[in-house]
Design brief:
13 strands; binds calcium ion; five-stranded mixed beta sheet; binds 2'-deoxycytidine-5'-triphosphate; alpha+beta; five-stranded antiparallel beta sheet; globular
């Protein structure tokens, strides 16, 4: 295998950073995005907090009531997912242009294989700097980037100096870099594994790298072998391009709530035609059809069916959408909105190679 250079990009305190960009009044204050704290009685958890709130010990996933105890003075905000998804899409569009192969990973991070764009780690570093700068200029947000010879090392490196970090780990420096870090940093070493390793006297990645691999395999099976390789910074996983589009949908709110079944079905057909057209334009085939119906009292239902075949035909979509919608149609119940969505895609290119 020829040497690779991989970047891992991770946005800094993503949800709270976006909220602060939208409302500069939040700057410098502790901010928590998550469930409503209700004066300490709230249920649900913290989605994220900014670095000011983290100083008080607030963490992602923690009960919101606990966050409230640790940091009652923070500004608590509910999540605005449509906003985060939009900003994420913009960031990914910028980052994608820097890579030969690009893989989004979660809402705020991505792997970039830049092997053919740069000739060494020094060039990769300046490419990473450019990317950071473009995101800063266009999105007014900071990120942290790790550069390494594979995804594992790049991911650990992006987390190494946060926020606004840039950490480059050359192939020859991998073991030195990993050695002092806690084993937890090896991505899927969970709490339980961590405890068992501790019992063996293994707390750093270096400890793990120097452990007898046969014992690890005996104790943890394949995962043990995997861990040992990771401790040596070995990761053959490729940056995998994934189709960006997860679903295509159209919906329509009636000017006035509708009781007439034929009007509803006509609209459903028109929506299905639009969805099918867009699917074809994107050179995709779908397998799953979902319809959504909202009654005048805002009661909302969605129902899906997965077809036994891939298709892009409008008539398949219309037939399935009608079938799904029929149980919800009744002259007594007036409808406010209907929608049609398709998902579970295979790209046209892939489909051709399969058949
Ligand atoms: N998130 C969430 N619940 C969690 C973890 C994360 O809802 N338990 C959301 C909120 C985060 C976003 O995902 O803003 C990205 O998660 P990260 O783990 O990357 O955390 P942040 O970007 O918030 O902080 P960091 O600067 O440490 O990356
Ligand atoms: Ca992040
Ligand atoms: Ca992340």
């Amino acid at each position: 295998m020829t040497a690779r250079i991989i970047l891992h990009l991770d946005m800094d305190h993503f949800y709270t950073a976006v909220e602060t960009r939208e409302d500069p009044g939040l700057q410098g204050k502790p901010v928590v995005v998550g469930a409503d704290p209700k004066g300490g009685q709230g249920r649900g958890v913290v989605a994220t907090s900014n670095y000011e709130a983290r100083k008080s010990g607030v963490r992602s996933g923690m009960p919101i009531s606990r966050a409230w105890k640790l940091c009652p003075e923070a500004v608590y905000l509910p999540p605005n997912f449509p906003l985060y998804i939009r900003v994420s899409g913009e960031i990914m569009a910028i980052a994608r242009r820097y890579a030969d192969k690009f893989e989004q990973w979660g809402i705020d991070e991505a792997f970039l294989d830049v092997s053919s764009r740069v000739k060494d780690f020094a060039e990769a570093e300046s490419l990473a700097r450019q990317l950071k700068q473009e995101i800063q200029e266009k999105e007014k947000l900071t990120c942290s980037i790790g550069v390494g010879p594979n995804k594992l090392v790049a991911k650990i490196a992006s987390d190494y100096q946060k926020p606004d970090g840039l950490t480059v780990v050359k192939a020859e420096d991998v073991e030195k870099f990993l050695s002092p870090l806690p084993v937890r940093k090896l991505l899927w070493v969970g709490n339980k594994t961590e405890e068992r390793l501790k019992a063996l006297g293994v707390s750093t990645i270096g400890d793990l790298a120097h452990f007898d691999p046969a014992v690890l395999t005996e104790m943890f099976g394949v995962a043990g072998t995997q861990m040992f390789l990771m401790a040596h910074g070995v990761d053959r996983g490729e940056v995998e391009e994934r189709g960006e589009v997860k679903s295509i949908s159209h919906e329509s709110t009636f000017e006035e709530d509708v009781g007439d079944v034929s009007t509803v079905l006509e609209t459903l057909d028109a929506l299905a035609d639009n969805v099918a057209k867009e699917t074809k334009e994107q050179r995709l085939f779908f397998k799953t059809v979902t319809v959504k119906v909202r009654y005048e009292n805002f009661e909302t239902h969605t129902r899906s069916k997965t077809l036994p075949f891939m298709t892009n035909r409008s008539q398949d979509l219309k037939k399935t959408a009608r079938e799904l919608l029929f149980p919800y149609l009744s002259p007594e119940r007036r409808i406010r909105l209907i929608g049609v969505r398709v998902s579970t895609f295979v790209s046209a290119e892939r489909q051709q190679t399969l058949t």
